[in-house]
Structure formats: structure tokens, C-alpha cells
Amino acid sequence: MALTGIQIFKLLPKTNCGECGQPTCLAFAMRLAAGKAELAACPYVSEEAKAQLAEASALPIRVVTIGVGDRALKIGGETVAFRHEKRFENPNGFALLITDTMDESEVGARLERFKQLEYERIGLTLRPELIAVKDESGDASKFEALVNKVKQASDGSIILMSSNPDILAAGLKACADRKPLIYAATKDNLEAVASLAKGDSCPVAVKASSLEELAELTTKLTEAGVKDIVLDSGSRTLRQAFEDQIIIRSAALNKKFRPLGFPTIVFPGEMTDDPMKEAVIASMFVAKYGSIIVLSDFQGESLFPLLVERLNIYTDPQRPLATKEGIYEIGNPDENSPVLITTNFSLTYFIVSGEIEASRVPSYLLVKDTEGLSVLTAWAAGKFVSDAIAPFVKKCGIEDKVKNHKLVIPGYAASESGGLEEELPGWEVLVGPRDGSQIPAYLKMWKP
């Protein structure tokens, strides 16, 4: 049975050192009890306390890392069933399927698409994370050669797929240093696959024919010392796979059922032969609740919407979507180009930058961090006022880029113009339009 926050607090060192990221040990204990922190964050907890706190401090769904370095994918760690309750923690990963029966040209084309299909959006790079290498030939040397090719051609994380432990071992030999996901342990090969996972400290996926069998297999794996597990319920029909995802999440969160407290993997490509229907099915699992989504192929027209959906689902609903603070150059501006400023609310940024681009007047756009608030809201909250804007203008480096020190502020912040001119000696503050659609006409009257 899970411990309460007070029970956990009694077992902590009570130093209030703050090294865990919380101001007091009591605050840390409350987060542990809520499943929002990990015991490892406390550097001074005793071994005896660790043993007693293991149940209370463990997240209901284990965090599993696949791969290494900057491209490593972290999945699991979820604490809610609905994002509005708090937020979803670790975004799903998209995997491209490559088999060892494909000809070299097809393999090369898929690897090239994996590298090329990435997109810039509000200062973020959206791209897939994984390549699933599947054994269809039954030839260990052929499988190993393909894994080597994938490893050399891409820095993405790898999934090794085979039911034969010997073939998995051959693939693992080629990429063990990349910490791939080993897929899959079944009731027929559990011990052999568990040995591979333990030997190279790699995560392992478990595939079963039912949730009951899945729970039995994960229990055996954890008893054997394998902790990093990904679940495949084995369902390949849309309805059953969807139901399984709901049941697994509910059992882990609501029932604290440890044998199902792991992230999952789903295969939309095995549920349909229609590429567009596969994308629709994948979109469902982005929200509920596939941690890894293996697609039969990548195409821009289907992958991009999935990446954007994932971005939206895995943003914090309590914090507006925001872009990065800084100077944005639109249309190759020079030292005589106008300088405009706005907030970092993503919708505001996209509207303003789009209208500037439509005007065909090369400009600098300063984006001030207002914690994702729009212009009027940020102004009302005191985050887009002269005292906040002026230090940003001075420090951002725009003064070195332009000769004419004229700053265009949004019309809704017109009342800040006088204060800004006092805070920014040498700058002339101009009041721009209130509505973004009027920016092109305003800029076309611009004179250096």
C-alpha cells in the first residue's frame, strides 16, 4: 500500500537542503506521495528508508529510455489519464519500419526520408525518433548487416525486432552501444531475451496474446532483474488495441497494478493496408496511449500532422504554447530595416511574423518572453510594460544591428510609448496597428 505524504516525510532526512528541487522535505514528501517526483532526487535518504519508500516513490508508469545521447527517447512516467488533469509527461516516439527483405534502394530511400522529414515550428524541431529494424529473412548475418547500415546512416534510436533470440543477439552485437529496444520477449523465448537485455543493459519489449499473459511475463522479467520494459498486448485490431491501451493505463494509474505499469508500443501498420487509414489510427494512439508508434513507412503528408498533434497533446495545458525569446529576422533585413516587438505567445508570433512576411518589407521582429501571454494579457499582467521591454531591447543586441533606432510597439501597448522613450534614450518609439492584418499597410509606408 502506498504511503501518505506525512508517512514519507517521517522517513526523509529532514534537512530542508533544497537539493531535490523542493524548498522543504515536507514538500518533497508530498510530491513523492502524488507520484510527481522520484526518490533518487534526494541525495541524503538512507538505504533503509529507500527500501521502505520504494513503493511510494515509484511512478505508476515506469520511465524507460531508448537510445543514447541527444536522440535518446524517454517514454512513460505518466501520472494522469487525461492531460487536463495535469499534463502528459513524455511524448510518444514515432518509428520507421525497415525489414531485412527490402532491397538496398528501398532501405536507402527510407533512411533518407527519416533524415529529411523534420520540421521547424515555433522554435522547436519536430522529427521522428526511432528506426525499427525487423527480421523477416531468418538470416542472422543479413539482419546484423542491416542493423549496421542503419546505425551508420542515422543517429536515431533503434528497435531490434525478431522472435529469434539468436537473431536479436546478432543485431545487438552491431548496436549494443546505442542501447536499442529489444523486441520482443514472449512466453517462448523469455529467458533468452531477458539474458540479452541484462547483458547489455537494454530495454526489452514484451509481447503477449492477452493482458493476463502480459502481466505474467512482466512479473517474470522483473523478478529476473529486467526493469526497463515496454508492453505490446498483441492486439492487431483497432478496437481491441484501443481497449488494451485504456485498460493498461487505468490499471497502472488507478489500481497501482505494477505488472502493467510500463509504457506501450503499437503497430498501426499491422491493423490496415491503407496508408492514410494507418495515419488516422496512429493519431488515435498519440492521444491514447501509445508510447511508441511504429509506422510502416514515413510520408510527409501523414507524418507532419502526427508530429503537430503530438506537440499539441504533450504541451502543458496550464501553460500557453510559447516561442523562444530573441531577434527574428524576416526577409533579410539590414541596418535600415524596421524593428517591431511583440510577445512570445505562439499564435501572436505566427500572426505577426506572417503579416510582416506578407508585407515584403525586410524587418526585425523582437519577441519578448511574457510566459506565453498575448499582448493585451501580458500588458495587463505587467509583463509587457516599459520596465520589462526596455531591458530586453538593451540586452538582445538589436542596437548593434540597426542605425535608425525606431521601435514599433503594438497598438494595444500604446500607453507604454512614453515610458519606453524614457527607458531607451536614443530610441524613437512608434505605435503600430492594433490588428495584425494592418501590419503590411503600415510597413509599406516605412521610410528609413
Shape: globular
Enumerate the spans where pLDDT stays under 50 for 5 or more consecutive residues.
none
Kindly report how far apart the N and C termini lie: 71 Å
Radius of gyration, rounded? 26 Å
CATH class of the largest domain: Alpha Beta
Give the strand order, joined by hyphens, for the main sheet.
10-9-8-7-6-3-12-11
Main sheet overview: 8 strands, parallel
CATH superfamily of the largest domain: Dihydropteroate synthase-like
The pLDDT mean sits at 93
CATH architecture label of the largest domain: Alpha-Beta Barrel
The CATH topology of the largest domain is given as TIM Barrel
Give me the oligomer status: single chain
The number of domains is 3
Structural notes for this entry:
The protein has 448 residues and is of the alpha/beta class. It has 3 domains: 5-57, Orthogonal Bundle (3-methyladenine DNA Glycosylase II, Chain A, domain 3), CATH 1.10.15; 64-313, TIM Barrel (Alpha-Beta Barrel), CATH 3.20.20; 326-444, Rossmann fold (3-Layer(aba) Sandwich), CATH 3.40.50. It is 39% helix and 16% strand. The chain is built from 16 helices and 17 strands. It has an 8-stranded parallel beta sheet. Strands 13-15-14-16-17 form a 5-stranded mixed beta sheet, sandwiched between helices. Strands 1-2 form a two-stranded antiparallel ribbon. Helix 5 packs parallel to helix 6, helix 6 packs parallel to helix 7 and helix 14 (386-396) crosses helix 15 (417-423).
